[in-house]
Amino acid sequence: MDLKTTKKEESQLPQVGDFLAQDGAVQQNTEKKYNYLDMFRYSTRFERVLIGFSIVVAAVASAFIPFFMIIYGEFTSLLVDRTVRVGTSSPTFALAMFGGGKRLTNASKEENQQAIIDDSIAFGVGSLVGSVAMFVLITLAVDIANRVALNQIVRIRKVFLEAMLRQDITWYDTTSGTNFASKMTEDLDKLKEGIGEKVVIVTFLFMTFVVGIVASFFYGWGLTLVIVGCCPLIIIAGTVVGKMQGTLAEKELKAYSNASNVAEEVFSGIRTVFAFSGQKKEKDRFGKLLIPAENTGRKKGLYTGLGGAATWLIIYLCMALAIWYGSKLILEDRNLEDRQYTPAVLVIVLFAVIMGAQNLGFASPHVDSMAVATAAGQNLFRIIDRQSQIDPMVEMGAKPDSITGRIRFENIHFRYPARPDVQILKGLTVDVEPGQTVAFVGASGCGKSTMIQLMQRFYDPEQGSVKLDGRDLRSLNVGWLRSQIGIVGQEPVLFATTIGENIRYSHPEATQADIERAARAANCHDFISKLPKGYDTHVGEKGAQISGGQKQRIAIARALVRKPQILLLDEATSALDPTSEKRVQSALELASQGPTTLVVAHRLSTITNADKIVFVKNGVVAEQGTHEELMQQRGLYCELVNITRRKETTEEEETGDRALQKAQNLSEEEEDDETDDDEPELEAGTSRESGFSRASTRRKRRSQRRSKKQKPEAPKFSFTQLMRLNAPEWRFIVVGCIASVLHGATFPLWGLFFGDFFGVLANGDDDVVRAEVINISCIFIGIGVLAGLGTMLQTYMFTTAGVKMTTRLRNMAFGTIVSQDIAYFDDERNSVGALCSRLASDCSNVQGATGARVGVMLQAVSTLGIGMVVGFVFSWQQTLLTLVTLPLVCLSVYLEGRFIMKSAQSAKAAVEEASQVAVEAITNIRTVNGLNLERRILETYVQQIDNVDVACRRKVRFRGVVFALGQAAPFLAYGISMYYGGLLVADEAINYEDIIKVAEALIFGSWMLGQALAYAPNVNDAILSAGRLMELFKSNSTQPNPPENPYNTVEKSEGDIVYENVGFEYPTRKGTPILQNLNLSIKKSTTVALVGPSGSGKSTCVQLLLRYYDPVSGSVNLSGVPSTDFPLDTLRSKLGLVSQEPVLFDRTIAENIAYGNNFRDEVSMQEIIEAAKKSNIHNFVSSLPQGYETRLGKSSQLSGGQKQRIAIARALVRNPKILILDEATSALDLESEKVVQQALDEARSGRTCLTIAHRLTTVRNADLICVLKRGVVVEHGTHEELMALNRIYANLYLMQQVAG
Question: Global pTM?
């Protein structure tokens, strides 16, 4: 694959492995190719010996197949001799070992009959001994191979996660195509498939061919040469097809991986998708990406079919040639005393070579899975082998005993690797003395947060250096450096575990007392202690269950618990309400007294006490000094403060007199607030076990979960229902079925004519024999054409049907998931990782059982059915006895089905659970790096993988027995059948050629069945997966979504909004009420602001209006109509949402803005630019080299303010009637805020606007301000009225003034 930068420039989805390395990153453009042996690089020396041993054992087992041919050939040959009773009988080797094969010359009828009985017994005993020996050897070999493969996979899983955790942030920025969830499950499963039993099975099948050829040369080299002449053709056909399959398999994997990326992105940002009714758009995008995979799959089917057809045709041509030439040799030797060519030699040579070649053919699906494994291994090992530039787990680098905390940024030039054309810092120099607090201010995107990232060494500067105590950061150990730093970011990430664990993350040795001390310092101890489970409360995926302010304070506690030498605060209080902010601010001021602190802030009130304020503009320092010095300079900073202050001066006069009295009341008020304020609103979502938590709680939870989940685990689902999934492709299936039946019929037909051929040999007239043999040869050629045609149609038709179905199922599954309600995504079982891995593996499993597999099954059944008919026609006694042996063959099927079904479930659940830990860590890689958690995550994952390992071992326990049974049973059946047939011939109850017909027709059939059974596991996996899919398709959103009526049209949704006695609790946490009889009315075209302490239910009001949830009691009415009476899309089409942490997708900027209006196919560029201008982002976008066509990768490299403005443009492009601003400007610096605030003020005009804000200056002009507390409105009025009331609001407002 050509990895040129142009790839990125075309607006298309990046491919897996576009490791575009720029600027000093390792150039990866020459990709290493890995061969099959590389797949075993994680085996120990002992394991390699074991693999070698299992291969040798398999090779020994393969020698028994020619042994059966020899004993069978000798026995049939003697039947001919002893029936003709002229001359001396053929010499034997194998039969003689078991007491048969006596040589007689012109003996009497009685002697010959007795000899036939002896031969029959010898044949029976020989077959029994051979079967048992082969059974034991194969079992041993397969078991060893599977065990070794599992050991390796466990190691690779661990190494792979470690490699991901070692990668630098640059790699994450530039590889948006690497879908971690699907690699963790799909690719590793494919690798496991290809390096276990497949090695042994392929060896066994291949060696059958080799040993067969050797034995044939020994018996009759002339005939062997003629037959072997055909073999290269068989092998060439197989290799060419295998090669094409490999390339196509890799392409198919790539296409599916791209689709999985979209799914992962959509599930992560599901609330945004819902708010903008993007479900249809996402379904289309997902569907488009599946088309190339479908086409590739069909091609793969076609080539496989052609290869199979060529193989069968050559085999039958080869047989025709063999019997024609062989009969000629037999006739020439007929009257000699010491004959070289007897019917035995013909049978041995023909069967040994043909069986060998056929086994080569049967090896092809196994070789195919080895090719797929190699393709999957490419993806994995490429990541494992990539050398990370900044490796957080490496031991290199200095680890000083102590540091003072002097920091110097020296002449720093920097651009982000993912946007190499935009220069962020241009020679910036700043000095920070030990223990100082230095604040960086400046416009959004000027490089403030970049400096924080350089300090953590997420990136290295292009030029210049960052020094700590005079040492370049590059010379220090990365892990050690990060362990010295406490970081609180703008959008803090919490992991899906308990609050206590989240705090302990940054300092694993912390005691409970340390944690509580840090929590008190961060001012969150009180609200945590009030939760029912206190510090053991789960916070949900990404901390979704708690409000922004609570999350922020937990993150601060997490930073403080490690007692850092350097504290980095990137907008640490932007998400807080005034009360919390004031408390946290004082907590931070206390905390920053010891360590050197770097602060990035947009609210100037939070940094007036800093030791130094640095104003950054255009990537360099514009001015620096203390607040007082900069105010005297009257420069850029002073101007910024005045803008902020101007808003307040008017009030200062009104409230001046009150301020003093206020200050005295404050402390009492605050005490009183402490008790009231933080009634926890654990926001939406629900906890999910992360597995970083303590093992004991994990075990407890797991046992609870097991009892909880027992029921839905194994959905009842039958094979017929599975086939019904394939119903729309019935035309392909019908043709495929007919082809399979035809192909199956060719085997008994062949047996029938082969028996006739033996009958002909007993004829004394050479000319008659020659004429008959030519007829039979022609018939064989006909059978060959039939078999070839059958195989090709069968493979192509079934593959096409399977691929089409997979595409449809993936589309349906994706569609069903995105049409669930938000509560579905809150459920711990439906985490992003679990949904992705379900979407990927369940659909491909179903294809595994339908499609080509069904063809093989049907073919086997047809072979057996027709074989039975042939058998009953020629000898019912022998047929009945032979049928007794069939259950033995069929038993192996049943056994296999039983145990695989049971163990597949536990293995799957365990892998899903383990990959959740990993996916969560990789999604939040910056937090993981910042907290230096890599080793901890790896340990947790390793523990869970060991559990997975136990489940997988259970799955393969009997695999060896089952495969061996399938191989050995047919030969045992031959032994029994021919033994009894021989006795019947001796009693003259039947002609000897008829016993050959019966045995060939039936046993060949059962042998084919055994081959089909090699595929049984897939059917069971598929039935399990299909059951899960069916359950998914059945699950509908519980939210009512009525059709449009005259009273619930779009126009109706534009009017007054009234919350009437609304009561609400989150579905995943019943019993914790969030809103209690809330009443609130919002008049049309007014602006209403909701303020109040963190966790009082403000965001919940918005979620109810957007109908993410519906009220438990009461109703939300629009123009008098309850929101639940509106169709969801109608309701949402008039709502424009701008939230606190906007989710942007991996699309171009233009597409992200156009996402706001998903009700039209094309949003014109003019409208997009219009919206961008209104939200004041147009100039920035135009300045980017690719303008509106710039792709936003997975970890978007935009600053918070830039993201926020794109989100505002997205909301405006749909021209909403109701604008919902959930903390829309909290992430902005003052300059951007001023501009965005203007944009929002403009946007509000003529619209109803519901705004949630912690910065009260932004809502001063609202028509109505409501103060919420504990889910009810406690004060409401305009700014002036509430200030006059002089209660909660006035209190909050005064806390937020900038210090003069």
Answer: 0.65
